[in-house]
Design brief:
The protein is α/β, with parallel strands linked by helices. It has 38 helices and 23 strands.
Length: about 900
């Protein structure tokens, strides 16, 4: 083995192109293409791990023409334009290389191959060995006893012997070889009629290009003789074009090419933005390497210094450790606090102690913390702080002055991203990894209550510390992105509202659901028998494979599409919906699937979710999930209960108030159309809504050019589809499919609509233009949604982004409006209706549980608040209802 120093030269452009074709379709949640970057990073990591290089350079092609274009203007002239999706990833690769703190080399007028050739010469002159990390045959001419090639994608290493074995010629003859054959990729002409085999034969016979051309006149084959003699100048031009320049004005100071360990605080944020989540923990600063002062506190008096520090800066970060991810079922195990970067304390309260361990007295700690947590002037900071508020409230500690939630800040800054947990936030914003839950508790499926106190302290204190540090980073980012007001005036006040709603829960008629379950079981059995009769035999209705055989082989129905893996028949809902027009069996199957889904998701599941202590159902409202700003709910998800079906109504009948109370439901009527009217300033839509007319009837009258009183139900339904379709960027294809009309007729309807509603047409166009120019759209209150794919060459990705650009300002504004109304209603309930609870928010509807005596007055107040929460150019209309269950109120 040689003791000479070795430098690795990475051919960046070659690998980016190869990675682009190898890793298709990869992108961030915001739509930024990252496949080529990911492939390049994998190659880079292979080099760093397998070779552990001491010296390395990443070599790039520079933008613009090179000296070869001056020599031959047609050089590379036949290359198609670079795919914009690929082009967008070159700067991302440069960012990654910079973040790895690796030397990059590029120079105007030179290609990467020339720079690698020059670096080869300079390195060898300084007694280095060189490894060319590439698969490019153009570099074969550089190989020698001191220069080798490593193609990491094929895991092949090449030297002079391997090149000679592969091509029949050594590296010293590669320039002449390429001069004869040319290169169609780069538009290098070569000699017409001379391919690789002929070129090898000629060079082996004559020894060089010069000798080949000198001996051309004596060649027996007339065509070969003619080509060589006629195109001699092309051969010499080609030789000049394929010869790599070894005299680029570069220096070679070995120290400049030393591989350094990357700074995690620089690298991990870049990896996080690219959403290379598997790599983040690998390169983030390991938790154990971060200098910290984490202490376990058993005596509350030990908190004096920290609380004094918190008082000085006006801020305290807090976190809880519990036994469950469900706040309403979690038992408090401990509390961690921080008010200074790198410093935090953990107060163990409910651990199952190991031999020799002690924990704090909960009463003493609570007595100490109650005035601290109740102090509204001391800002409280947390990560998903709604969870902590619920846990602490149930344990007997009320928290006031809640000021900042790092999860919500991260969400506002990047609403398209799926991960806003503390680990992801720490990696992106602090460049560090965190202790995993499994490390703290000693394995999977273990309770934090069983964690040894020493490990628990490090884990829990880190949560509070990282939350505090993330707050310091995210707060200025909100200001820079003009999100400060939305965060502090809307999202943070909503935390308290949602906390209270989750704790309120809703009553459930468990017996009613049990009766419904029996009915559905009977209905499903009957449908199953009908399906057997229609098929002519029994089969498994839940088996796509068996179903495919029945539908397409036995019944001979038209095959609409294959499964994703192209290995079988697709029998998904969209396929069955189309087939239902042809045969009764698919229609029955659709009904079977719908009933089965609702039975398992709600009728069977809801009773199991009733809290054993409160005897109520406690859903979780999620603030940091949807990119538009809408709330979602989980455990259970109440958003998907069908609205206009008999079964959906039966399920809603089982949501009930406690004795002596009623449910009041307040639902914004057509809020998205009202927002559209305000944003678009469309005269006709504004006029219809302001006068309280039936919008869909008026639209139908204009589309079909008939008086409003003559509009049929079918025409109104079609107009309604168009009205709402505009909000979602509906295409003529989809309108035709939904309305069962021709695509031409559908396009004509859309054209007529946009022709009559000129304000809406202008708004949609202006919105798309704004999105294309800025890369994002905003709601009325300033919420942003980033749309990186808005200018993509990928048609499907671009069209999806365009639909988001149209829909987000409308749906997002509607979401912001109902959030404002919830905050105001909550304040009103606290001050005026202490016995009333806000219990549900589903779509555009709020549901309250109130004593019968307060029903009318509450209804008036809620309606007044919701209709006047924001001033639009058209009135906000609220439908009110009440009853002994949600279905009646709705």
């Amino acid at each position: 083995m040689s003791n000479k120093p070795k430098i690795y030269l990475l051919d960046a452009s070659s690998y980016i192109h190869r990675a682009f074709h190898a890793v298709r379709g990869l992108s961030t949640s915001d739509g930024v293409p990252t496949g080529a970057v990911y492939g390049f990073v994998q190659m880079l990591l292979k080099v760093l791990k397998d070779a552990d290089p001491e010296y390395l350079a990443v070599v790039y092609d520079a933008k613009g023409p090179t000296f070869r274009h001056e020599m031959y203007p047609a050089y590379k002239a036949n290359r198609p334009p670079l795919d914009p999706t690929l082009k967008a990833q070159f700067p991302l690769v440069r960012q990654v290389v910079t973040a790895f703190d690796l030397p990059g080399v590029e120079m105007e007028g030179y290609e990467a191959d020339d720079l690698m050739a020059t670096l080869c010469r300079l390195a060898v002159e300084k007694d280095f060995e060189v490894v060319l990390v590439s698969g490019d045959k153009d570099l074969f001419q550089l190989l020698s006893d001191r220069v080798t090639m490593w193609d990491t994608m094929k895991n092949k290493r090449l030297g002079p012997a391997e090149v000679k074995e592969k091509l029949g010629l050594g590296p010293e003859m590669m320039i002449d070889f390429q001069a004869l054959t040319g290169d169609s990729t780069d538009n290098i002409p070569g000699i017409p009629g001379v391919g690789p085999k002929t070129a090898v034969k000629l060079l082996l016979e004559h020894g060089s290009l010069e000798k080949v051309l000198e001996g051309a006149a004596d060649m027996k084959k007339s065509k070969m003789r003619e080509n060589l003699l006629q195109h001699k100048d092309l051969a010499w031009l080609s030789r000049d074009l394929v010869s790599l320049a070894q005299d680029a004005p570069l220096g070679f100071e070995p120290e400049d090419y030393k591989v350094r360990k990357p700074d995690p605080q620089v690298l991990t944020p870049v990896l996080a933005k690219l959403e290379f989540n598997r790599l983040i923990n690998e390169f983030a600063t390991p938790a154990q390497e971060v200098e910290t002062d984490y202490r376990m506190v058993l005596d509350p008096s030990e908190l004096d210094g920290l609380i004094a520090r918190a008082g000085e800066i006006g801020c305290l970060a807090l976190d809880t450790e519990t036994t469950s991810v469900e706040a309403m079922r979690a038992r408090l195990v401990g509390i961690s606090l921080s008010a200074e970067p790198g410093k935090a304390v953990y107060i163990p309260l409910g651990h199952n102690l190991h031999l020799g361990e002690k924990q704090a007295d909960q009463k003493a700690v609570f007595d100490y913390l109650k005035p601290v947590f109740a102090d509204e002037s001391l800002a409280k900071v947390g990560q998903n702080i709604k969870y902590d508020l619920t846990v602490l409230e149930r344990a007997g500690l009320s928290v006031k002055g809640v000021s900042f939630d790092t999860m919500l800040a991260s969400y506002l800054l990047a609403p398209g991203r799926t991960a806003h947990n503390l680990t992801a936030i720490a990696a992106e914003n602090l460049g560090r990894s965190m202790i995993s839950f499994e490390e703290a508790v000693g394995g999977k499926n273990k309770s934090f209550a069983d964690a040894p106190l020493e490990k628990a302290t490090q884990y829990a204190a880190e949560d509070a510390d990282v939350t505090f540090q993330a707050f310091k980073v995210l707060e200025p980012k909100l200001k820079q992105s003009s999100m400060e007001e939305l965060f502090y005036e809307l999202e943070m006040p909503l935390v308290e509202v949602l906390t209270r709603m989750e704790m309120n829960g809703v009553g459930l008629d468990v017996k009613g659901l049990a009766d419904l379950d029996k009915e559905l079981t009977s209905q499903l059995d009957a449908i199953e028998e009908r399906c057997y009769t229609l098929a002519g035999h029994k089969f498994n209705l839940n088996s796509p494979k068996q179903l495919g055989v029945v539908l397409f082989e036995e019944l001979g129905l038209r095959q609409i599409k294959k499964t994703k893996k192209k290995t079988g028949y697709s029998t998904d809902m969209s396929v069955l919906t189309q087939l239902a027009e042809d045969h009764e069996l698919p229609a029955e199957l659709l009904n079977y699937r719908t009933l089965s889904k609702l039975k398992s998701t709600y009728v069977e599941a809801l009773p199991k979710l009733v809290h054993p202590e409160t005897k109520r159902l406690h859903t979780s409202f999620n603030q940091a999930v949807t990119a538009t700003g809408r709330l979602s709910s989980s455990n259970p998800n109440l958003q998907n209960i069908p609205v206009r079906t008999q079964l959906g109504e039966r399920i809603r009948q089982c949501f009930v108030p406690e004795a002596g109370k009623v449910l009041v439901a307040a639902d914004y009527s057509q809020i998205e159309l009202r927002v559209l009217a305000h944003l678009s300033k469309d005269e006709l839509l504004t006029q219809d809504l302001s006068q309280g007319l039936d919008v869909h009837t008026q639209t139908a009258a204009r589309l079909f050019e008939i008086p409003a009183e003559e509009v049929t139900g079918d025409q109104r339904r079609r107009a309604k589809t168009v009205n709402f379709g505009v909000l979602y960027g509906m295409s003529a294809f989809r309108l035709a499919r939904e309305q069962k009309i021709s695509r031409g007729e559908a396009q004509d309807i859309i054209d007529r609509y946009l022709g009559r509603y000129a304000g809406i047409a202008a708004f949609t166009q202006d919105n798309l233009t704004y999105a294309r120019e800025n890369g994002y759209v905003t709601t009325l209150l300033g919420r942003r949604r980033y749309l990186p794919a808005i200018n993509s060459t990928d048609r499907l990705a671009r069209q999806s982004a365009e639909r988001m650009a149209l829909n987000t300002p409308i749906q997002g504004t509607a979401a912001d409006i109902i959030k404002k109304a919830m905050i105001k209603c909550h304040e009103m309930l606290v001050n005026e209706f202490p016995e009333t609870m806000m219990i549900l928010q589903v779509h555009d509807e709020l549901v309250f549980e109130t004593p019968e005596k307060d029903r009318e007055r509450l209804s008036e107040r809620v309606q007044d608040i919701m209709q006047n929460i924001i001033e639009l150019s058209v009135p906000l209309d609220v439908d009110l209802g009440w009853g002994d269950n949600w279905a009646q109120a709705h």
